[in-house]
Specification:
about 500 residues; alpha/beta; Rossmann fold; 3 domains; 5-stranded parallel β-sheet; 3-stranded mixed β-sheet
Length: about 500
C-alpha cells in the first residue's frame, strides 16, 4: 500500500526542546525544565493555585481541579521536553529525574498563571463583559469548562425593563413547586442560585444558605441541586456533618482543592456546630495540611455554601454567618404531594439550563448597567460585598424580600432568648441598677414577698428546675454564661459589678 505524498505532515511531532541531565548542576536542569514547561503551557494547562501547582481534569463531562504531585508533573515534563542523558558516546532518552521534579515543586515561585477557580457556566466580569471563551481567562483567573453541548443564548448588552421581567420570571420557574415558608425564603433561594454565577463580582466571603423544613421529604436537597445544576450543570457536591471538627476541616480542604462551586452539607441531624466550617465561610484563603503530608496548602475560598436539615439549629458563630431558606409543605407527608408544574424538575433543568443561565446573566448585566445599586436590607455580619451584589441584582429584578427573615432565624436559634429577656426585664423592675449576688436574688425569691412574684414567675427553667440547695449556684452559672450578651429590643445585658464575700455581684444594664 502506498503512502500519500504529505505523510510527513501527519507523522512529524511538534519539535520539543532538549534538556540534558548528565553532569550538570540541579539548578541548571531545573531551569531548563521549567523553561520548556512554560513554552508548552500555551494555552495554559498548568497553573499556580495557592501554593501548589494544579491542572484542570475533565472526565466524562465532569471537571475538577487536581493538585500536581510528582507523577503528574513528570507527565507534563516528558510531554514538554526531551530529556537526554549521555551514554557511551551518544545521547539517550531519559525520564524527567525525580530530583528535578521535586526541585520544581519546592520552588518559591513558578511563574504559571494563577488559577482562582473552575466554572461550568459563563460569567459576568467586573467590567460588565461576558466570559464565554472556553479555557483559562487571565482577566478573572477562572477556567471555564462548559458541559458538552452547552450553548449560551444571546445576552443583551443593555437589558431593558422587559428583558429583566422576562429573565426573573424564567429564573423563578424552577422554584415554582417548592413550598416556601414565606416570601423571603423564596428571595433567598434565588440568591443561592445567583451566588455561584456572580462569584467574581462579589468582594469577600459568602454566607451559608441553611435550607430547612419541619420534616423530611419537603425538597431541601432538591432545592440546592436546582441552584447547582443552573450554575454547573451538575448536582451539588455533597458531604455530611462528621463527628469531629478535625474531619470537617479535612473535608473542607478536599472540596476546596477540587474547585467545587457549591458545597452542600446534607441532612444535618441535630445542632449544626463546626468551628472549622465557620472559619472557612469567612476565610479569603484556606490553610491546611494535606492528609499524609507535612506541607501546608493555601487555597482560595470561592465556593457557595449550603446546608440542609430538619429544623436546623445553628450554634456558635455559624448563626451570624448564615441565611435561611425555609420550606413548609404544611402536611404530615410532604413527599406525597402531587400536581407539580414540573413533575420531572431535574429533566426540566438540564433541558432548559442554557436559557436559565442566560436569564441569570441578563439580571446581573442589568444590575451592572444601572450602576450597581445597593439594596436597603438587614446587615449580615462580614458579608457586605455579597449583600450588595446579590441583593442589588434582586433589587433590579423587583424582588424586595431578600434577607427579611433573618430576625426570625435569630429568634428561633436561641429558644431561651425570650425567657431570659422577660427575666432580665423583671430583674430591672425589681432591683433597678442595684448589684446583686445570685444567692441574694434566690433568697429574695424564697422570702414570699409578693412584690417579687413577677421575678419568681419568669425565672428561667434551668434555674427554677434546679434543686433548692443548688439554685443559687445554677443562677450564678447561668449569669456567668450570659454576661455581656444583649437581650430584647433594649439590649439588656448582665455585667459583673465586683464581689461580696468572694461571690460575684451582678447588675442588669440597658444597651
Amino acid at each position: 500500500m502506498s503512502l500519500p505524498d504529505d505523510v510527513n505532515t501527519f507523522l512529524v511531532e511538534p519539535q520539543r526542546p532538549t534538556v540534558f541531565v548528565s553532569n550538570r548542576p540541579l539548578r541548571d536542569v531545573t531551569a531548563d525544565a521549567l523553561e520548556a514547561l512554560h513554552a508548552a503551557n500555551d494555552p495554559p494547562t498548568v497553573f499556580t493555585r495557592g501554593d501548589t501547582l494544579a491542572r484542570v481534569q475533565t472526565n466524562e463531562g465532569t471537571c475538577r481541579i487536581v493538585t500536581l504531585g510528582e507523577d503528574h508533573l513528570r507527565g507534563h515534563l516528558t510531554r514538554a521536553a526531551d530529556f537526554m542523558r549521555w551514554g557511551r558516546n551518544e545521547a539517550r532518552h531519559a525520564s524527567p529525574p525525580r530530583d528535578v521534579v521535586r526541585d520544581i515543586l519546592a520552588a518559591a515561585e513558578w511563574g504559571f498563571p494563577r488559577l482562582r477557580g473552575l466554572i461550568r457556566t459563563p460569567m459576568v466580569r467586573t467590567d460588565g463583559s461576558l466570559l464565554t471563551q472556553e479555557g483559562f481567562d487571565a482577566a478573572t483567573g477562572l477556567f471555564y469548562a462548559p458541559p458538552p453541548g452547552f450553548q449560551l443564548p444571546p445576552i443583551p448588552g443593555h437589558p431593558t425593563a422587559l428583558d429583566v421581567r422576562e429573565a426573573i420570571a424564567l429564573l423563578s420557574e424552577p422554584f415554582a413547586d417548592f413550598p416556601f415558608g414565606e416570601r423571603s425564603s423564596r428571595a433567598n433561594a434565588l440568591a443561592l442560585a445567583l451566588t455561584p454565577l456572580m462569584r467574581s463580582l462579589i468582594t469577600g466571603s459568602v454566607p451559608l444558605a441553611v435550607v430547612d423544613a419541619p420534616q423530611q421529604g419537603t425538597g431541601k436537597t432538591l432545592l440546592v441541586d436546582v441552584a447547582s445544576i443552573i450554575a454547573t450543570g451538575e448536582e451539588a457536591a455533597v458531604t455530611t456533618l462528621p463527628r469531629s471538627d478535625d474531619e470537617m476541616r479535612k473535608r473542607i480542604t478536599a472540596q476546596l482543592l477540587g474547585g467545587q462551586s457549591i458545597v452542600l452539607i446534607d441532612n444535618v441531624d441535630g445542632p449544626l456546630q463546626s468551628p472549622a466550617l465557620a472559619a472557612a465561610i469567612t476565610a479569603h484563603v484556606w490553610r491546611d495540611r494535606i492528609l499524609g503530608h507535612s506541607r501546608e496548602v493555601i487555597v482560595p475560598v470561592d465556593v457557595t455554601w449550603a446546608a440542609t436539615g430538619n429544623n436546623v439549629r445553628l450554634i456558635g458563630d455559624l448563626l451570624r454567618r448564615s441565611y435561611p431558606v425555609r420550606l413548609d409543605a404544611q402536611t404530615s407527608e410532604p413527599w406525597r404531594r402531587s400536581g407539580f408544574r414540573h413533575p420531572d424538575l431535574l429533566g426540566y433543568l438540564h433541558e432548559n439550563r442554557p436559557q436559565l443561565v442566560a436569564a441569570a446573566l441578563t439580571l446581573v448585566r442589568a444590575w451592572v448597567h444601572e450602576g450597581r445599586p445597593r439594596p436597603a436590607i438587614p446587615a449580615l455580619g462580614s458579608f457586605q460585598g455579597w449583600c450588595d451584589a446579590v441583593g442589588g441584582v434582586l433589587l433590579v429584578a423587583g424582588v424586595d424580600d431578600f434577607l427579611l427573615n433573618l430576625e426570625s432565624m435569630y429568634a428561633g436559634a436561641d429558644p431561651d432568648a425570650a425567657s431570659w429577656t422577660a427575666f432580665l426585664e423583671t430583674w430591672r423592675e425589681c432591683f433597678a441598677e442595684e448589684a446583686m449576688t445570685a444567692a441574694a436574688v434566690v433568697r429574695t425569691l424564697e422570702g414570699g414577698d409578693l412584690r417579687f412574684e413577677p421575678l419568681r414567675s419568669t425565672l428561667p427553667d434551668e434555674v427554677a428546675d434546679a434543686h433548692p440547695e443548688r439554685r443559687s449556684r445554677a443562677l450564678g452559672t447561668a449569669l456567668a454564661q450570659r454576661q455581656e450578651r444583649r437581650y430584647g429590643p433594649d439590649g439588656l445585658r448582665v455585667v459583673r459589678s465586683g464581689t461580696e464575700r468572694h461571690a460575684v455581684r451582678w447588675i442588669v444594664l440597658r444597651g
